[in-house]
Design brief:
This protein is α/β, with parallel strands linked by helices. The chain has one domain (9-157): YbaK/aminoacyl-tRNA synthetase-associated domain (YbaK protein, Alpha-Beta Complex). The protein contains five helices and eight strands. It has helices at 9-20, 37-44, 76-83, 93-100, 145-152; strands at residues 28-29, 51-59, 62-69, 88-90, 117-121, 130-133, 139-143, 155-157. Strands 1, 2, 3, 4, 5, 6, 7 and 8 form an eight-stranded mixed β-sheet that branches. Strand 6 (130-133) and strand 7 form a beta hairpin. The protein is globular. 41% of the residues are buried.
């Protein structure tokens, strides 16, 4: 008999957001870290491109959460042009936790102390089911591209030239 352990607190907050949005996805905890898109894809037996990595950038010093396909890296120059920003830079790890309440490698699209400006990589639309972090480096949940755009209020944009 297997006793199911409760989700970590950060993941419970994410699940609450999914429930409130009426989404069917359930946060699940995996035995191994899903800190990178490759780790998550391996654990879930899916294409790395179906992993929605949540990355926090600073566009002219304003936080922007970018959900990007694991199949490529965000082109910060392209993103800056699309956002009309003079510069886009990665957010330092300490500030990521302060802004999102979550650690790098486990940043979810939702469940932050305050709603963030969001961008959703158009490449994620290529996948019927995408997987996002559930608030910790070992938790994930499934959803569709349309649901990701809806729950984040994100703007679909091309974030890489590949």
């Amino acid at each position: 008999m297997t006793i199911e352990q409760p989700l970590p607190e950060r993941s419970q907050i994410v699940q609450q957001h999914l429930d409130e949005a009426g989404l069917p996805g359930r946060v699940r905890e995996l035995p191994d870290s899903t800190r990178t898109a490759a780790d998550a894809a391996s654990a879930l037996d899916c294409e790395v491109g179906a992993i929605a990595s949540s990355l926090l950038f600073l566009a002219d010093d304003e936080p922007v959460l970018v959900m990007t396909s694991g199949r490529h890296r965000v082109d910060t120059d392209l993103l800056a042009r699309q956002l009309g920003a003079a510069s886009v830079t990665m957010t330092p790890a300490k500030l990521v936790r302060e802004i999102t309440g979550q650690a790098i490698g486990g940043v979810s699209p939702v469940g932050h102390p305050a709603r963030l400006r969001a961008v959703v990589d158009e490449a994620l639309e290529d996948y019927e089911v995408i997987w996002a972090a559930g608030g910790t480096p070992r938790t994930v949940f499934p959803l569709t591209f349309a649901d990701l755009v809806a729950i984040t209020g994100g703007t679909p944009l091309r974030v890489a030239d590949d």
